[in-house]
């Protein structure tokens, strides 16, 4: 190195919708992070995201001791020393935040995961949703324009609901038709949005049983804290959310980077 | 990437198998064109032995369905069958096969120059031991070709196979003789039946030994090899050629065990495959697993052509027993016991369940079986969503992530 930069370890999570980077220092502390749209050029977006996270950490490329990539576009990260699946990285990132037996519910842009981790941080099992957008971020992204609202306003609107409108369908396309039907019936937008949140929660809860402590992560959770409150109420116990829920996969990748380095 | 560079040791006997399969298809084609010999279509675990004893040459539409899958023609054929009323949710062997017939194409033409179509049947014979789809499938062709369709209706969800189960099946088998004699124009000869059954039994025993070589560490064979090399056990059982073939294959695999030749070099993990293969992805899946030094080495599917109960001393009863003892015919309790035995025998680290969209009959992960078995045995499992033939029902990226994450999980446990 020789440029005076302190050593850092980086995790790059190239998801179908967003690319996330986390850099950690020698004490495993997050020192820089960034989120950008993945777009159509995964290599470019991951480079850009990495630069942003490095800038936040106040270091240059030379400071990177090791970099692990994960997510759909994990093979597109040229700078990566190795790759890991997003399942492994989420498990690692979440266990780092909550070192207990946990069930992790990750709601991503394109897919959901339920991962069970034991008290030593070892994965017991995992499930990914079938190839379908039900209950994912894409579901909310599909519904926002139908309701003529920006996606960022969903959390606030759902909180205003006084009479939630429940949606019956399982399927994103059918749900869209149902939403149009509710609009035609004159239902209020906040009530429909809350119904959409419930639909997301139900889809992920039916993926697997919840054992031990429940942790929720992912972009949808990061941007819609009300959804977590609703889920808590529904399952009747507290749900833990890590400090940067959208970045747990990237954090896990950074932790893997550090482990590999020390091996 | 590492996946492309990987060179797996080749099975030398494959050349002989190709020759035998080629002879089989040309023989059928010849019979169909010259009308010198009668042709029966039979379900893959149907009473092929009775048909051979009566001098029929036998075509197996499921084998043709698998060829449509393996050549990746199936996905284009299925919509043809959908258009005439067959749902995309039913067996994609059926829809691919019927679709190919409607389009007037067959993968046989490419593999065997000179063969233009599947051999036309003189009779179709089904056994519902697998599913009801085969019955509808054969009925359709029966109407199309205006030829008789006969069949055996098997009990399903059988726990212990008891006398009353097999007695009724044996009677149904015997009842097939008269109509089949009429079609074949040949009298049923019990000695011939016993001879065929003895050959079938020998084939079955050799095939079992072949599959059992996978218990060796490292395993000399993979499930993906098995799906290819089971060809003779499916279409040639009851013939000397099948027996000869498996003797040769077995010798080769035993030599591999002696020399410690691993089918997947550097074998680190051993997996069991439950369910159908994804025919259009055999190579990709084989590469995916082996690039992670993981051998999917045994399966329920390939084991389905083991008929240890065949006994020439009591042909009908023993056939009835063998065709009812099949995994697919059995209750969940019996199936779970079977898988537990397999886990122990093959020393596997994990199980992959293939949830095949269009074959509920071969998808055993839909009623909590993986969870129950995992709890009892401690052996972890993974469910992948896919299909035997319809590639529109597959997400390769999801499969890959799931498989890689599963192998990472196994690594953490070691
Ligand atoms: S068992 Fe499955 S694959 Fe075989 S014929 Fe029946 S539905 Fe098709």
Summarize the structure.
With 263 residues, chain A is of the alpha/beta class. Chain A has nine helices and ten strands. The chains are: A alpha/beta (263), B alpha/beta (414).
Describe it for me?
The complex is a heterodimer of chains A (263) and B (414). Chain A has 263 residues and is α/β, with parallel strands linked by helices. In chain A, 40% of the residues lie in helices and 21% in strands. Chain A has 9 helices and 10 strands. In chain A, the strands form 2 sheets. Chain A has a 5-stranded mixed sheet with strand order 3-2-1-4-5. In chain A, strand 2 (18-24) and strand 3 (30-37) form a beta hairpin. In chain A, helix 2 crosses helix 9 and helix 3 runs parallel beside helix 5. The two termini of chain A are 20 Å apart. The mean pLDDT of chain A is 93. With 414 residues, chain B is an alpha/beta fold. Chain B has helices spanning 2-5, 14-34, 48-53, 61-70, 74-83, 92-103, 107-111, 133-145, 163-184, 190-212, 223-229, 231-235, 240-259, 282-290, 300-303, 315-325, 332-346, 369-377, 396-413, and strands at 39-42, 57-59, 123-127, 149-152, 269-274, 294-299, 350-356, 381-386. Chain B has a 4-stranded parallel sheet, sandwiched between helices. Chain B has a 4-stranded parallel sheet with strand order 6-5-7-8, with helices on both faces. Chain B is globular and about 65 Å long. The mean pLDDT of chain B is 95. The interface between A and B is medium-sized, with 17 and 17 residues. Iron/sulfur cluster binds at residues 62, 91, 93, 130-131, 133-134, 359, 361-362, 388 of chain B.
């Amino acid at each position: 190195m020789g440029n005076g930069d302190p050593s850092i370890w980086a995790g790059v999570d190239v998801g179908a919708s967003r690319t996330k980077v986390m850099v950690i220092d020698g004490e495993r502390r997050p020192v820089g992070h960034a989120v950008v749209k993945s777009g159509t050029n995964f290599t470019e977006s991951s480079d850009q995201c990495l630069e942003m996270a490095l800038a936040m950490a106040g270091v240059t490329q030379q400071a990177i001791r090791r970099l692990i990539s994960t997510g759909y576009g994990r093979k597109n990260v040229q700078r990566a020393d190795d790759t890991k699946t997003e399942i492994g990285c989420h498990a690692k990132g979440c266990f780092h935040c909550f070192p207990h037996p946990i069930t992790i519910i990750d709601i991503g842009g394109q897919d959901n995961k339920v991962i069970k981790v034991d008290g030593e941080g070892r994965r017991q099992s995992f499930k990914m949703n079938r190839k379908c957008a039900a209950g994912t971020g894409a579901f909310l992204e599909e519904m926002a324009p139908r309701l003529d609202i920006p996606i960022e306003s969903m959390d606030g609107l759902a909180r205003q609901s006084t009479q939630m409108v429940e949606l019956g369908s399982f399927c994103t396309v059918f749900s869209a038709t149902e939403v149009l039907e509710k609009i035609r019936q004159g239902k209020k937008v906040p009530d429909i949005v809350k119904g959409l949140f419930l639909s997301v929660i139900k889809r992920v809860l039916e993926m697997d049983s919840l054992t031990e402590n429940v942790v929720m992560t992912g972009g949808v959770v990061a941007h819609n804290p009300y959804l977590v409150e609703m889920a808590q109420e529904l399952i009747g116990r507290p749900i833990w959310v890590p400090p940067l829920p959208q970045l747990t996969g990237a954090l896990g990748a950074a932790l893997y980077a550090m482990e590999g380095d020390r091996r | 990437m590492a996946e492309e560079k990987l060179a797996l040791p080749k099975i030398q006997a494959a050349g002989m198998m190709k020759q035998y399969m080629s002879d089989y298809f040309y023989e059928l084609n010849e019979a169909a064109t010259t009308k010198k010999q009668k042709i029966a279509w039979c379900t893959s675990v149907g009473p092929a032995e009775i048909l051979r004893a009566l001098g029929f040459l036998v075509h197996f539409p499921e084998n043709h369905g698998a060829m449509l899958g393996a050549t990746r023609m199936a996905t284009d054929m299925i919509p043809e069958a959908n258009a005439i009323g067959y749902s995309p949710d039913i067996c994609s062997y059926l829809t691919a096969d019927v679709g190919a017939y409607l389009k007037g194409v067959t993968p046989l033409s490419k593999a065997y120059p000179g063969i233009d179509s599947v051999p036309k049947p003189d009779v179709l014979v089904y056994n519902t031991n697998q599913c009801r789809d085969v019955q509808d499938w054969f009925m359709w062709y029966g109407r199309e070709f205006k030829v008789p369709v006969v069949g055996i209706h098997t009990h399903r969800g059988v726990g212990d196979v008891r006398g009353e189960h097999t007695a009724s099946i044996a009677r149904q088998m015997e009842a097939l003789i008269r109509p089949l004699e009429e079609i074949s124009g040949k009298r049923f000869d019990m000695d011939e039946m016993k001879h065929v059954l003895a050959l079938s039994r020998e084939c079955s025993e050799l095939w079992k030994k072949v599959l059992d070589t996978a218990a060796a560490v490292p395993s000399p064979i993979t499930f993906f090899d098995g799906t290819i090399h089971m060809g003779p056990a499916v279409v040639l059982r009851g013939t000397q050629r099948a027996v000869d073939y498996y003797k040769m294959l077995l010798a080769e695999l035993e030599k591999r065990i002696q020399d410690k030749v691993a089918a997947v070099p550097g074998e680190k993990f051993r997996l069991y495959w439950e369910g159908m293969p994804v025919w259009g992805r055999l190579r990709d899946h084989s590469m995916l697993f082996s690039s992670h030094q993981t051998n999917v080495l045994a399966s329920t599917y390939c084991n389905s052509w083991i008929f240890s109960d065949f006994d020439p001393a009591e042909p009908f009863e023993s056939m009835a027993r063998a065709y009812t003892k099949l995994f697919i015919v059995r209750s969940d309790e019996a199936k779970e016991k079977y898988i537990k035995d397999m886990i122990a025998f093959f020393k596997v680290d994990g199980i992959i369940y293939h949830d095949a969209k269009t074959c509920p009959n071969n998808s055993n992960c839909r009623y909590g079986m993986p969870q129950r078995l995992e709890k009892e045995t401690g052996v972890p499992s993974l469910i992948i969503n896919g299909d035997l033939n319809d590639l529109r029902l597959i997400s390769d990226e999801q499969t890959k992530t799931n498989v890689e994450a599963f192998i990472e999980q196994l690594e953490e446990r070691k």
